[in-house]
Write a structure and sequence with these properties.
The chain is mainly alpha-helical and 345 residues long. 66% of the residues lie in helices and 0% in strands. It folds into 2 domains: 7-147, no CATH class; 206-345. Residues 152-203 are annotated as: Disordered.
């Protein structure tokens, strides 16, 4: 039986992202359920019931809280299931892959209905569901499940002549006759140019390093764009944003429940945007150092990813995306082939 092939990097990335994301959301839902019935929650539900199109439903406060509690229960079950299915899908369980795909589809539909804030998470959910069924992922699941898989030629065997003799010497040079019994063993040095050892070229970059670098670039680009927009809103449009936070509505209630004023909230958002922009620049610089094989590039990128995980905890649930991306970077850089490639000079 052929050895199990290595798991495709895209599949590993998907399982890590879904597992970590579901785990963080599960913690948030359980935390919300533990503080159920608080005054802040009732005020937020009351404001939501007073706005369109929820107002047209004619729900009372008790009915809305009951429906919301049931939705939290369903969310706990789905997020816990998603974390378990992600672990088993990473081990090659075919049923878990199907169930994980269904959960990704449900997440895509639910997040897409939230409007602009849910577009980015919905795109990630759809991408995760699609990556579970790529040709590489299907081939890997078939191999793990013991199904017949057609051999795919690798770059080392592609183009080799199947009719070439493995015992033949260099072209135009006959093989040396075997030494006589009891006689000395003749040693010859090949003089034909084709017999000279080929020069060793640069070692190709492992796919795990490529996944870590691409993940850093994509996540840094998206977060930097959002940080620039937030910085623009809190500087150029600070007056309009302050008015929105002080007018009656859900935003004012959220500011009051946090125990800070509108000016303090704007300053906090401005500082947060600057911190995230600095982290994005540091991540891009470290990723470029990894691409150029700078000796300290891998360590720098791991440190930036670890700091990103710490920052993501303070920005949940939006920090789920950045935290999952940082974990993927660390896992990929800690793989043996990544460390071997980065340690070579």
């Amino acid at each position: 039986m052929a050895d199990r092939p290595p798991r495709p990097p895209a599949l590993t990335l998907t399982c890590i992202f879904v597992g970590v994301g579901c785990g963080l959301l599960l913690v948030n839902l359980v935390s919300a359920l533990s503080s159920w019935g608080s005054i802040e929650l009732q005020d937020a539900v009351r404001d939501a019931l007073a706005q369109e199109p929820v107002k047209e439903l004619g729900l009372s406060m008790d009915q809305a809280l009951d429906y919301l509690r049931y939705a939290v229960y369903v969310g706990i079950v789905l997020t816990a299931s998603g974390a378990v299915f992600a672990v088993y899908a990473a081990r090659g369980h075919r049923t878990s892959r199907v169930m994980l795909t269904i959960l990704c589809g449900i997440a895509f539909v639910v997040l897409a209905t939230l409007g602009l804030p849910g577009l980015l998470p919905a795109a990630f959910a759809g991408l995760c569901g699609w990556s579970l069924w790529t040709p590489d992922a299907r081939r890997w699941f078939d191999q793990v499940g013991g199904r017949a898989v057609a051999d795919v030629p690798t770059s080392a065997t592609k183009g080799a002549d199947p009719f070439a003799s493995r015992s033949a010497g260099p072209v135009g040079r006959p093989l040396d006759p075997p030494p006589a019994a009891g006689g000395p063993v003749a040693t010859t040095t090949p003089t034909h140019p084709s017999a000279q050892p080929a020069p060793v070229g640069p070692v190709a970059r492992p796919r795990s390093v490529t996944v870590a670098v691409v993940t850093t670039f994509v996540a840094s680009g998206v977060v930097a764009l959002l940080g620039l927009l937030l910085l623009l809103v809190t500087t150029v449009g600070a007056d309009a944003y302050r008015t929105a936070l002080t007018e009656p509505g859900l935003a004012r209630d959220l500011v009051r429940s946090s125990g800070v004023s509108a000016d303090e909230m704007i300053e906090l958002l401005r500082v947060s945007a600057i911190v995230w922009l600095v982290a994005c620049v540091a991540g891009v610089v470290a990723a470029l150092a990894v691409v150029r094989r700078v000796p300290s590039g891998g360590t720098a990128l791991v440190v930036v990813a670890a700091v990103t995980i710490g920052l993501s905890v303070f920005f949940l649930p939006l920090g789920v995306v950045t935290g999952a991306a940082a974990i993927v970077v660390i896992v990929q850089l800690r793989r043996p082939e990544s460390r071997a490639w980065l340690s070579e000079e």
